[in-house]
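Aim 2, interim progress. The first record below pairs a target sequence with its structure tokens.
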Amino acid sequence: MKEEIRVVHTCPLGTGGITSMVLNICEHLDRSKINFDYLTYRNQHEYNEDRALALGGKKLVADNSSARNSISRIFLKFYNVYRILKKSETDIFHINASSPYDTLAGIAAKIAGVNKVIVHSHNANSSNLSKFWILVNKFIKFVMPLYTDAYMTCSTEAAKYMFPKRIFKNRNYIYVRNGIETEKFRYNEKIRAKIRQQIGCENAFIVGTVGRLSKQKNQMFLLEVFGDVVKKKKNSILLLIGIGDLKEKLIAKADELGIREKVIFFGSASNVNELMQAMDVFVMTSLHEGLPVVGIEAQAAGLPCVLSDVITRETAILDTVSFINLKQDIHIWSDVIISYSKKNYERKEGTEKIIEAGFDIQSVANDLYFNYLEILNNKQ
């Protein structure tokens, strides 16, 4: 085996949770022994691109935007993945997948001569798929073993959704925790005071969330819930961290609810760890998730969490996590959120328990490196 292992991750270099985790892992590896390249499908400069390149990786672009329709886009994407990997010296092609369809790039990798293909599930569902795409995903799960050498997942539910029944039933997959830089999130009163002053919310009850402004993250529902929070607790502020296509619609929704001045659309942030110090409670109303890394970060910061019950219970490391059904009345959501206000709840240190549970990024990086070695040495 050559000295340096080269792993190509299918990974956008924007602001998402998958990107954050992959780059965090890379930063904690011995890059003289192993390093990552990043295959993206967007031919434009991305938020985390410079960070990725600074780690010694390359951005590989399989752009299919010139295609005229969805069918030609699929074939152009497939061809570009093949062309790129054929010219690269790739030991492992690591597919970070949100749906079975995402794994088809593994066929192109195998044809290109890549030694090992890993399918890594980061999602536990897909919303509003047509009957056609449901059938397509079922077929892909059936043929997945033909081009997949190893399976990884962030949670049991994500494994169940993504992998063939036989793989899931036999637990023939590797559990890779969504690791975080735990020390960065350790609760700090001084940072809390500084950030709250900077955003002009020293005396506010801050409800916070982090994620793409997208249908999956379901911030429209969160705005409705927060509207009820404000009725019951006037000094409440909603801190929305993230960017996405729904921003203008969310602003319009906040206007419609009469809470626009109570909602901070913060945009992307490189200091999420500090912004979490300023929050009082963390909320996620997602329609589906794998295991959200921001939920682990929030607990490390000592934040109580109120999550939709579609999110796997494996997210709950501390006993300060509540799960609520999205069909429940918004009054129930708002009551639970307000129950964590300062007069009822004393913020607790969460970092040590997160480390004990195996979510520290250094531990995750070490384990993944040895998993890579084992997969490469497997001759099957």
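The second target in this work package is listed in the same format:
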Amino acid sequence: MRKVVLILVLLFTASASFGQHKFYYTLVIAPHQTQKANKLFIAYEIAGAKYIDSLTTDKKQLTFNKKLAQPVAAILYTDNKAISPAAVFLANNTLQVFVDAAAAVRVEKTPLQNDFLLLTENDRVRPKYFPLYGELTAKNDTAGLKKLAILFDSLKTDDVKKASDYFSKNKDSFISLLAFSRLTSSLTDPPTVEQYFKQLPDWAKDSPEGKSILSRIEGAKATQLGSKAIGFTQKLSTGGNTNLERFKGKYVLLDFWASWCGPCRTEHPNIARAYEELKEKGLEIVSVSLDTNEKAWLNAIEKDSMTWTNVSNLKGFEDEVAIKYGIQVLPANFLINPDGVIIAKDLKGEELVMLLESIMEE
């Protein structure tokens, strides 16, 4: 069967409205020779809000204009699963789309598109290793999981280097906000993140994503060592709600994770060990998931034998608790003492178990 493919011609056009903080994209469907794809979709996310725009492909030509709150990465796909999706960047540009019987998906490159694809290159590499993670977990292959964690760490390091190089030279670019987010994703020092944030153009600071980032910076400032832990209420995986206040008088490891986060799940055996050893001495663990898919969240809890308290509002990184605690990257955790004060952060591996043991045996 002949495969229907999508040929994208991505034409970047500068706009005078850029200086007025107005953004848009234009989609043009050109005549095609086959009805193998009946609908075209563009999916993107801005500050946690998900959008899917769509167009039918059964007309001779169709043009669609859409205003945007900010420049944003998107995925272009059709209702035919045989057609591979294409990653694009929407920022005052015109995407001219052809659906025909060619042999491959082709996206005509522009400087902006090339930069975007380079910055996000590893996003298309990681999914290849997800099945392997499941296999290693099923076999309880700790050595293999450690090697995989090292690989994910190397990809993350490469992400940060690419973003740092780009941001240092292109602060006024449409993708400066994307580069900033990737550059600062592994930073835990709020003042440093804030200094980078101040270098962004005004449109980026004023965008929905920019405002969300600023809230995280303020949250990170408020949750440094010695600070009082910020209270919250969230939905339990078992139904109903719980709050941080109910654990007052105990040591609490407040853990942020997600089912899709390999390094997070690699840490779960260490967390489980600490919990089993110390729960009788008053240790409580509260894991806040930044998932958006409830089924994936609950399946991961079961597979990883997470027998402690699990909560989530299924809003991803726009989770209110994640914002309050300034979470930029996963995994992340905070150790809270019986007085409700944060006494340690980002514990992992043997360090997590040993520190908990030493503190709780005093």
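The longest strand covers residues 5-12. This observation will shape the mutagenesis plan for the next reporting period.
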